[in-house]
């Protein structure tokens, strides 16, 4: 089966409520390809390796979390940017990208999927005062050692996360936000979290965690953001009868 590109874009835009977000990049259709979509590839970042894999898979469209045209980037279409766009245009493949809307969706989003995979329940927004904020806070079913949670995250992501805190201490109230959300640690402190989980760490984050008495885990930007786009692709495949393949391009960050 297939769906028109126009219908697919409209459906996802509505599903993820893209108009609610003030983002750092355009959400939705970024590069237009052929008008009908039958084969869909999803991935985390629209790097050249993902584009080449999508070409080999004869994809009609690619959906990613990290697309193009970020605020503040150089505008000329030269070098790496030219090569990426040329690959899409030459093979008539559409590129769709959803950044904050894909982080925030309550069922298909990066945060929702990571929380579910870790068994976190009673999820609430980490910042209820901001309409388009991302990040969540919830509970583990019962208190457990920080070391046990770190081990679960390592098994899930396939990489050893950075943990700041006493491994033997018990944690239960968990704040989390995938990607590069280390600055949200202060919001997790204010919300009474025992532990804050994100993808990346900055130098000040370690000191904040130690001085505020909160556990901190950096589990990898790429590693924590693989799950939303997979869930979205699976949803679209079922909704429209599409062929869907998630392609994971390894990234150690």
Automatic annotation (TrEMBL):
Chain residues that bind a divalent metal cation: 65-66, 103, 221, 225
InterPro entries per the UniProt record, alphabetical: DUF34/NIF3 (IPR002678), DUF34/NIF3_sf (IPR036069)
GO molecular function terms listed in the Swiss-Prot or TrEMBL record: metal ion binding
A GO CC annotation given for this chain: cytoplasm
Keywords, comma-separated and alphabetical: Metal-binding
Signal peptide: none
Superkingdom of origin: Bacteria
Family according to the record: Belongs to the GTP cyclohydrolase I type 2/NIF3 family.
Name this polypeptide is given: GTP cyclohydrolase 1 type 2 homolog
Organism (species): Haliea salexigens
Classification of source organism: Bacteria, Pseudomonadati, Pseudomonadota, Gammaproteobacteria, Cellvibrionales
